[in-house]
Structure formats: structure tokens, C-alpha cells
Amino acid sequence: MSSQEGLSEENCPLVTVIIASYNHAPYIEASILSVLKQSYPHIELLVIDDGSTDDSVQRILRLQKEYGFDFRQQQNIGLSRTLNGAIERASGGLIVPFGSDDIMLPQRIEQQVTYIKDKPEVGICAANIDLIDAHGQLYPEKQQKHRYLPFRRLNFEDLFLDLKPGPMAATLMFRREALLRVGCFDPSIRLEDLYITLKITQAGYYIDILDEVLALYRKHESNTYKNLPFMVENVLKTYERFSDHPAYGQVKTQFLNSMFLKASSRNKPLARALLRDIPIQAWTRKTVRGLLRLMVPTH
User: Fold this and answer.
1) What CATH number has the domain spanning 15-218?
2) What is the rounded end-to-end Cα distance, in angstroms, of the chain?
3) pLDDT classification of 4: cutoffs 50, 70, 90
């Protein structure tokens, strides 16, 4: 990562990578180093620690002393507010929020810039991912469900109705103008990636997803998707913002059925609460499978 003389903004646009860190001490160094080791030469790296209580700050400071990237510390204000603040001071026309527990492959930024730079209709460029465990080891081939997905272009309908596989958060690259057009992230919705991708496609932009693996997504005990009550609250809140869509009811019940099935074995009180919100006429095979799981006693 470097800033080189003679670079044309047209041919080599500045990319701002934003890493918002919160209690990811075991992973933060690998995340930052993966940005610093990108093949693309025109990157601005902004790292913000959002009130971590582990030793994340000390680890980041050691790397900052060596590499000299922009690092700021703050009291915890949440991811969406942190991202919005970083976007305000970002210099790049392309913005990459990146998880402090994930890893970019070395060609990631270069390949996405090459693809998106002459396609103004594309507001977001994404790619495929490989899964790694908490120790950075790849999951077995049979579990790499996002490795071989084909190229796809998504509009709002594709995303909202789940007609095509959606973008992986660890690979999102945004046009700054697209983010600004929709007012950036909504601090009241803490599941930021679903909301922002829906808003940007609703505004008329496309999401193009490359058929190459460009990032490693780390699965560990504190992944957001494992917090089922959090997911239910924030996905429903997100969908509610689009409640004027004719298929809103269908999208909502489809999500409730999926979450009911997951909760039926992991969080039975949540599962019972979700079941009350699913009309009988909207029950699916997932509902029935969840009911059977719900009947199995918890040991």
C-alpha cells in the first residue's frame, strides 16, 4: 500500500479502506496487514477503535508505528456511526468498510477497482469468499459454499426478494457517490450491510458480484449472525423500511420462517415468540421442521 507520483485518479482511483475495530484483538493485526499488503498502490487506510476493552489498541498502535496509517480511538458509538464518521473524512472515491476479523487476499482491491472504475451504473462491487476458522485455517472444501458462485448482477428486486445469492459483506466496495446519495448508514439499524445494499439498489444502482474469491471470512464464537435475537430485531427493522413494497409481507414471513427453524434448536423461547408472528397460512416446510425440533426437550 503506497501513494505513488504520477497516478491518474481516472486510471488508479483512490480507495479508502475503513476498519472499525471492537474487541477483535486476536484478529485485528491480520486484518490490517492484509490491507497493507494489497497489490493496488493507491489506498488510504483509516482504522478506528470503537471503545475496545481488550488489547486491540496496543496491537494497532504497534502496527501504526511501523506503517503510519491513520488511527483514531473513541468511546463506543456503534459500527454505523463509526463508518459514517470515517466516510465524512475519507478522501477516496471508492469506499471499502472491512471487518476487523477478516482478511483480504492480495489482489482484492486491484481486481475490484479494475472492474468497477468504468461502470458508473455499479454502486457496489463484491466477490466470493472462502471461510476460515478462528485460527485462520480454511474450512474443508465441502463447506466452502461461497467459493464457486457465478458472476451475478443484482438490482433491488433480486436482493429484496432473494432471487440471487447476495453480496458477501467481507467483499463490499462502494462508490462514495452512491453512499452519499442514500445518506450513508442508518445508526438506528445495527446490521449495516443489509440495509445499505438495499438502499443503494433501491436508488437505481447495481451490485455486481465477481466470480472470484477475494476475501477470507472468519467464523468464530462472536460472529454477528450467531446472535439470533440481534439478527431478528435488525433484519425486521431493515425490511420495515421497505414496507411499501408489494412483496414486503412475503419477504418478512420468509425470513421469520428461516429464523424460526434456526432458533428452534438454539433458542427455544425466541422460536416460540417467532412462531406467534407467522400466520398459519404462511407456514412452510421450514416451519414444520422447526416445530418438530421445538418438541425435542433441551438437555
Assistant:
1) 3.90.550.10
2) 52
3) very low
